[in-house]
Amino acid sequence: MTEWIISILLLIGGSFVLVGSIGLVKMPDFFMRLHGPTKATTLGMASLLTAAMVFFSTTQAGVSVKEILISLFLLLTAPISGYMMIKAAIHHKLESIERTKGIDNIEDDV
Amino acid sequence: MQLETRFRWLPAPLLSLLLFLVWLLLNNSVSPGHLVLAVILAIVIPLVTSPFRTKQPLIIKPGLAFRHLLLVLYDIITANVQVAILILGPTKKLTPGFVKVPLDLTHSLPITILASTVSLTPGTVSAEVYPWSENLTEGNKPEQQFLLIHVLDLKDEQALINTIKQRYEAPLKEMFEC
């Protein structure tokens, strides 16, 4: 039974991480590419870590809860790194694809 | 808005709670020795570091904060599914866009939390906070600030702004009371 749970969690996690990476390849410009890694991977990593938690809690003595910490730090760092990258992209005036709306909303750097 | 706690030896109650939990999680145990050590660390570290940190508003309604956390966690799950569908769907149909969201929040901690939740929830990544003012805490009148976000698939700009303001900003405003 636990084996089933672990396998399903691993599959869900793996597919979300895969989708995030596909987004990285498929999207036409930098700003759209950023959406895959900041979001699709958080749930993927969370499922993978839950699988690890279930696996180590059932196979070894005692409960393993360190994985909660890893998910917590991932949740904290994913938006920050996304923010740093998009800020750098705006600073370098990277081109976005033509149909991007509201490009005037970007203000000039000081 | 409240900047100081009632207890002088506990300058940041949530930070203390977080340190306590992180210590226990790192050691993976609840033995008495670790409990005592966790309590000592949770009290000493905020006390020692508080002179270095700028005063941030405190969460006044912890119950509301907890409910907001659950809502955001639920939204993260739906966001992942939505973005996965958008990524796997036809790329040519997506209309990306930049949107400016006017902010009612004034302090950097609530704005940071809002920006992070926006990054983690459906189809949006926060990019910048305008205008570039850094001395908001020093008593001058706060200007109207904007949060610049990039949207993966922009359909209705006003609806998106309203969702962000009602769903994520209003609870933050209420729990910090600012």
Keywords for this entry:
heterodimer, A: 110 residues, mainly alpha, 73% helix, B: 178 residues, three-stranded antiparallel beta sheet, 52% helix, transmembrane (chain B), transmembrane helix (chain B), membrane (chain B), monoatomic cation transmembrane transporter activity (chain B), cell membrane (chain B)
The greatest interface here is: A-B, 48 and 40 residues
Radius of gyration of chain B: 19 Å
- β-strand percent of chain B reads 5-15%
| Overall average residue pLDDT of chain A | 83
How far from one another are the termini of chain A?
59 Å
Find the structural class of chain B using helix and strand composition: mainly alpha
Shape of chain A: elongated
Count of DSSP helices of chain A?
Answer: 4
Element order of chain B: H for helix, E for strand: HHHEHEEH
Average pLDDT level of chain B: 80
What is the assembly state of the chains in this entry? heterodimer
Helical proportion of chain B? 40-55%
Keywords (chain A): Membrane, Transmembrane, Transmembrane helix
InterPro entries (chain A): PhaG_MnhG_YufB
Protein name (chain A): Na+/H+ antiporter subunit G
GO molecular function (chain A): sodium:proton antiporter activity
What does this structure look like?
The complex is a heterodimer of chains A (110) and B (178). Chain A has helices at residues 2-26, 30-33, 35-59, 66-91. Chain A is mainly alpha-helical and 110 residues long. Chain A has one domain (2-97). The longest helix of chain A is centred in the C-terminal third of the chain and has 26 residues, at 66-91. The mean pLDDT of chain A is 83. Chain B is mainly alpha-helical and 178 residues long. Chain B folds into 2 domains: 1-53, no CATH class; 62-176, no CATH class. Chain B contains 5 helices and 3 strands. Chain B has helices at residues 13-27, 32-49, 62-88, 108-120, 157-176; strands at residues 97-103, 124-130, 145-151. Chain B has a 3-stranded antiparallel beta sheet, with helices on one face. In chain B, 29% of the residues are buried. Classes of the chains: A mainly alpha (110), B mainly alpha (178). The interface between A and B is large, with 48 and 40 residues. Chain B: It holds the Pfam family MNHE. Chain B: GO terms for molecular function: monoatomic cation transmembrane transporter activity.
